[in-house]
Amino acid sequence: MSNTKHSRRAAANAVARAMAGDTTIPGPREPKSPQGRLEMLAGGEFVGWSAVADATARLMGLPIEWLSERTRRAVEKAIEDPTFKRLRRARAVLFDESARRDLPDMYSKDCAVAHEMLAFNLAALGCSQAHGEITAAALDRFSQLLGAGRHAEAYMCLRSAIVWAGNASLDFTDQPYYSEPNYSQLSQYRFDTRRMLQFATALHDAEAQALIADAILKGGAGQLPPADKDGDLAIDLASHDFMAGTEDLPEPEEPLPIPAPVGRTLVVVGSLAHLPKPAIHARERRDSPRAEFERIENKALPLLPAPDPHAFVEEGVRRAPWLRPIFEILAQDLVGAPYAWTRPTALVSRPGMGKTAAVRAVARGLGLALRIYNAAGAADGSFGGTSRQWISGRASIPLQTLLQEGVANVVIGVDEIEKASLDRRNGALGDTLLPYLERESSKAIFDSYIETNVNLSAVSFLVTANSMEGVPGPLRDRLRILEVPAPGREHLPVVAANLVAEIRAERGLDEAWLPGLDGDELSLLARHWKGGSLRPLRRLVETLLAGRERLAPRH
């Protein structure tokens, strides 16, 4: 079976399971606790099949003792009598509460999640505005999942969006609420798949026509293809009999040949005419900032393209299956992205869980060069460069990396950010990083070494930390914080293979001289490593390999 047929069969099977009521995606049919946002967008159920009981359970899980008096009163009233008006009031004040500066981050997040999730409860109680909010969120989620090739989840989110959209124009808050399972309503909806297939094919062909016409206009021929009697471009497109029975649908045709678009570029460093001209002699030119950067002055550097989001996830999972949640979240930044880039993100976990290795895996999946900057003990702001008036002057770390790689997008990994000094006498790393992590400010960052603004907006920043405690608030606000899962015992074969490959590379050996671990060796490791930190596992692997060397025959 071809790869196309296999992937098509797999997608159809996944969607069929979803249509049949598979609860893997939307969660249990009778949940005992409130569901998460992704489950609810896919058609998840309320606790007790009741929006009122679900809202009460969600509000009771809030840290009441930490809330302000105003918010506490609103929440307690909503718990006591969860009417539409009281739940709406509680949702409004929870939004304000989540922005309180003196509220610990974990409780601020609880308030923000409760505010976001109460939209589902209010929609069930008849609020048209809440229906509109959920419809928009479900369609956005559908678009992301479709781009990632996750068809079953995409189907569920599209179905939910259409059902909720039907109620978005009407307000039923003055009518009695009768609880019932969400699935009973969702399962009654049926797509007209034949019409959807016709629409998708027409959209595909129209897009192909537009691209071909544009390519002809830009190609210098000066002529468009002849128009038919209706004035449309007479481009011969492969067609199918779409009115045939869906069971006999042919395999998709090969894509129409479309000229490859010109790669995207970005000018990182503009004119350097304000700097003194470099010396003629090469020996003296080495200390000249203008000489150092003149090879990328006013030059459009290539932007490496974004990988396919689905391929990015699967390649990452192949190397580190326990990191699937991380790769799936990062893949959302690649859906429709013009080039490889991901939002500034902090990877947080206990020591030894492989955070730095995860950063390397992400950079490898993006196809971008990586520079690791060790923040542990950093006591100044030299990350952002130093003035050329000093003999040790240099450009910022990101700009140096772009100069070395000759491209406009790379990954900068800042390791152990929580260990950076907070002393500001010589500049603090946390303060220095701030403009680099904002898309707008990073488009024009002043570099004190070459004394001009540079465009670093295509650089991706990944930060690692054992804990975000002690990290300055403004820096935390600019980072998407993700908890890194710990590898389990079931991941031992993959983890051990990665460690052996790492040791092999460090020693400059190939696989013939340092083969992977066999079944007996893996069994021995499994007796002593139950999952968690990779550092003790590495020591165990090194001990096994040392034992091999001692037992190897000498000739």
Concise overview:
The chain is an alpha/beta fold. 45% of the residues lie in helices and 6% in strands.
Structural account:
With 555 residues, this protein is α/β, with parallel strands linked by helices. The chain has 4 domains: 3-191, no CATH class; 194-237; 309-483, P-loop containing nucleotide triphosphate hydrolases (Rossmann fold, 3-Layer(aba) Sandwich); 489-551, no CATH class. Helices cover 45% and strands 6% of the residues. It has a 5-stranded parallel beta sheet with strand order 4-5-8-3-9, with helices on both faces. A two-stranded antiparallel ribbon has the order 1-2. A two-stranded antiparallel ribbon has the order 6-7. The model is unreliable at 220-225 and 230-262 (pLDDT under 50).
In angstroms, what separates the terminal alpha carbons? 50 Å
Number of strands: 9
Oligomer: single chain
**Low-confidence segments:** 220-225, 230-262
Q: From the helix content, strand content and strand pairing, which structural class follows? A: alpha/beta
Instruction: Identify the strand order in the major beta sheet.
Output: 4-5-8-3-9
Large-scale geometry? globular
Report the average pLDDT across residues. 80
Report helical residue fraction: 40-55%
Q: How many domains?
A: 4
Compute the number of helices: 22
Radius of gyration: 28 Å
Largest sheet: 5 strands, parallel
Percentage of residues in strands: 5-15%
